């Protein structure tokens, strides 16, 4: 098998310059969820000349390319395309200065702070290599460029819009994510690998008035602040230390000026869990606390609590993970393939395998310069010096990150695809 | 003196329809501080035909009209023109739907939630009546339409831009404000009548990151929430019950989405006080708490604490207040002139008298339908049923509020102006 | 009248050594509310030889002495006897080292931290002087030594136990308190002088368990802490700045060790107000917050909220206050009689006048060395250097505090009593 | 080996009545750490007739019995003896009503809420059986009855007082704990099994004063409450969800009455962790927060933060655990031996093995009626219906808990001891 992947990947070196340009271009032009117009257009252009059957506008802005290459298994490879409303602070020459109108009608800065630009680049590279080497393998490859992973819904939207009618039921669904680990490394684990995530939008209602006469108002700023502090107790008091959960209030917004008490406050709460029972308990506690804190303030109206978004737990199929890990070990060597820790991040990748009943595997690819990573680790400064995903400082190094991700995708796909005559000839 | 005011005010009834149109037009077109372009233009137009010497652009968008009418005292009458970033909820047929870009570059709704539209209308009515009856009095009247009272600085800006070179040093500075009291009533008090106000902008710095990995971040949302709760103790623990102070956090803003921990939070704090020592103690406590809560969070950087705006205590000159109250009692009858309670609201009106060394008096004019007010009072529902200034529901009734305010201004001015030959002839 | 008081007070100087001994003895032997056994015995002993008709055990440990001295008005003079569960830190040679069992069965330190030892000393001195000079006045004097002022109920207990059957209806009820003001000064005001006080005992119920497994418990420590912080908002947000109220949590107690989560927490809350409406609003807010915070914690049982104790507002009768102030001014000179500020402290003194329908007046007598007070004031260190009542450092100076209080009581009583033949002879 | 244990345990059934009496007696007479006078006396009495070489007063109240029974390995079996300051609420006929004076001089209720009465009973039963069957085995058995496990220090005190001079270096150190698991089950795991625990005593200093004048004080109740709420963020924000830690404030105490603001508050904080780095981070965060909250309050003096007590992580030696688990499986059958979950509880048991360099193993024995446990589990009410250790409701069922623990100790000891001639004869 090594030989097969090595063969297919033979053209990679000559392609790296072009892939880096692609990456930098995408990085400079990040787009929010469901607004991936330009990104999808670039993807479609690049697939155009490669014999993939390309369908655009799948689930909004999604792009699907299918390369039917004779009888054999079907492998679905997925990359997500959207960026985040974060103001980039990397200082890179190709840092984003883009802005966009978000779902609430606000103009916000936009940045690929989660590395989806890298994901798209990887999958474009793999798509091209697999197409170029189609003599070497048999089966079908479906490359799926998904919109709107960040705010969830993108995977489901593609499913609902007929993804599996375009692709058929694949034998395996594969996906990968760039991570704050040393570039050159791949990280995977069987079973649960990523958390469930629930986004809860909380609207708290007070009664506005003049800042100097709080006694005529019900102050939603105080209500929101008390709620945020009390929400800390969900994890500190209500979840066992040996269970894992996160309750983050990512946004608190109320009022615009000091001398007017506003009438509402908004909290955006994110709940992570790895277990359905923990998840239910945490969500119930959030609701209980929000309602009680509104009552403590004498709120004139019940809060509105809306789950706007849910990601399932990401669970890697055990046999498929074993097959994948074996392929990685063959290709990269055992020292570059490590067991991933349980990640508190979430993904809607799992929706794809669930929807079609196929096994799925998700893994991580390091994106941090290995020497810098080692130094940060040695000096105990990993957390301060190695920005994680969603940080305004998150910036994977293009090399060897681009090459590693392309290699991983190709090696993974070939672990399921059948040998082609070209490969057999070479052997 | 009664006769004089009654004579000058003879023309008021025929003018009320026009003044109501003026009021409704201003209410429909509110403008933020220093953006009072349209309002100033309407003011200048209306002054144009009345023999006032009109200067526009004083202190930005301010308008000054001076009517020199023979030897005698100079009376300065001041109205403020600006509106607030509040989304109107009055349901009135002439409710504002306006928006504007605020000082932070955000598009915000705009509403005359503090009644400055009424103030402008009053002063235009008084200006017209005084001009029409100029045979009845002697002296000079300066009508001053001030920008940017809400965020302070407007009065100072006019002073700095030469207001008193245009007007000379007046014998008295007079101003009035519409208040949640029964329409038809005027309310005044000698000595301190309104609070000092300090606006404090607080920027809290954390370290952003992924919502699922709080341990890699310093969460500014929690830091801000803890700060807001702790700031409640300034008034509850550090100011004597028998002193008066208010510490309001009118705005708390951090983050835009649930799964990204932002790197900063912003608080807008307003401090009210009636005494310099209380003021210093409250401001020092705010600073101490903000810094300590940042330390409690392990903030990577000290908070920025900026006093963006300060209003002085508004103090009514005692002899001038006596003269004014006597004039009001003569004109309105004793039952419509009551002692104003100490108001926690603030004004930059006091800047004008301080700057020129003249005595000044500020008073309130009721704007709530008297029957509705009485019923709310009787049923103990004043606070819920009578919206106060800055509420999105604040809506003075045009009648008799417009007439009462015009009458008060004219009666007040004539308490200082000298009788003219017209009046003496009539007598 | 001056002459009369001066005459009666002629014997004071020779008595001061004995009164100081009495004071020091009482200070060394403080007793908690309703435990004033030794104090009452000392009082009865001292009254014994003075021709007062003495009744002990009135309302528990109260002592009443009546001296009927011919036809004329009846003056009731009241002193309270009880001490506080405070560990004395004055460092005085006669500092208390006493302990006692409190109402909850706990052994606690006891200290005259509120100066009732001084009050008893004053009234004993005045009683003796009035008895000695009985030729100089006519009427009746009732000296009332009340138990249990600190935890309220003592005045009511005496009333219920027939105080006014012993005394008759007096013409005036008079009382005085030592205060952190310069020794030698007396301070009074007409109308409201002291606050209402309500003591609220809050029991919060959680579910106990092992400190390492909070998820199996409902943590009452967190519940109590959140409640305390939220209670700060009653004053900061729900009471107008121009109204006065205090909400103090004087005690929070839960648990005894770090690794056991207790099942209950107890808060002792004190609410001060000067107005019935403010009082009702504050008490309602306390209850609302306590209940809501228990709900936020998921408490298995509703909190218990008990008003254990209430003091009324202390209101000085206006004409009686005028008469009293005139007498003080005559006796002390105008520079030693000042208007008292509104005090947030509370008293059950007002119960006596209310119960019998007589006017009552309450005033303060300074107890701090005048030079030390002046220096603290000049250096802005009044709050740190001059301990207030209930502080473990509170320590009135015996001289001239003892003499001033005796003089004030005698001058006050004589302002109502009628001249006697002795005085008239002297005149 | 099965045969050996079965033989030695042959006498158990006839002994159960006596052991239950022993258990009930101990349960009725719980004693606090280092006060185990009566318990130690009972232990010494029972060992007296059994040929053990008994030493009392080891490390305070500890008791050591050594039975040298020919050449062979030495097995150290340890039980802890102390109880907790908890008021028993089990309603059992033999419930404790005992009280004692704790280390702070307070009279507190005492209860065997952690089951050490069961531990002592088990070890006495095993000691008797091993002595009776001494023909069946060779080697030495040391039975160690340790004081003061709850507040730590007991194991170290015995070591410091010459435990291993009495016993020699054992081949293995064994201990067991009754747990809220089904009676009849034993639970063990290799590697880390219990958490590190650090007890942190926090004294917060304010400035006391009258409850009605908070502005003259620095309120330690508010300081303590804010600190407790902020401490919740250590786990919720500073420890990764996939790491395990607990920060519990088990006690908060300040003040005794509502109208006196006390000058100090005391918090008792417990920190649990399974990893040195997490432990250091949590302890540092506790200190940072305590200091900053004192600063936020304007405390006149730095808080005192004292680690009063630390338990190490309990780590089971891997080979020894394998040997033990094999012996348990042989004796009880595989269905009664399960892998223990990581427990957030802590022990000073690990001190013994560390001190002498011997491998050690610690395990759990279920104490809850199996049917009741199964029903609680089935109805999702484990947490409410099955009280955990340290709960006032914690009550192991005597049967089969007593027998199971004795069997486990004997089977465990014999897994190291050598066959004796008696056993060989039988075989």
UniProtKB/TrEMBL annotation, chains A, B, C, D:
Its cofactor is Mn(2+). Pfam families: M20_dimer (PF07687), Peptidase_M20 (PF01546). Residues 201-294 form the Peptidase M20 dimerisation domain. GO terms for molecular function: metal ion binding; N-acetyldiaminopimelate deacetylase activity. Signal peptide: none annotated. Gene3D superfamilies: 3.30.70.360, Zn peptidases. The keyword Metal-binding applies. It comes from the Bacteria. The Mn(2+) ion enhances activity. Keywords: Hydrolase, Manganese, Metal-binding. InterPro entries: Amidohydrolase, Bact_exopeptidase_dim_dom, Peptidase_M20, Peptidase_M20_dimer. Mn(2+) binds at residues 114, 116, 150, 177, 390. The keyword Protein biosynthesis does not apply. GO terms for biological process: diaminopimelate biosynthetic process. This is Hippurate hydrolase.
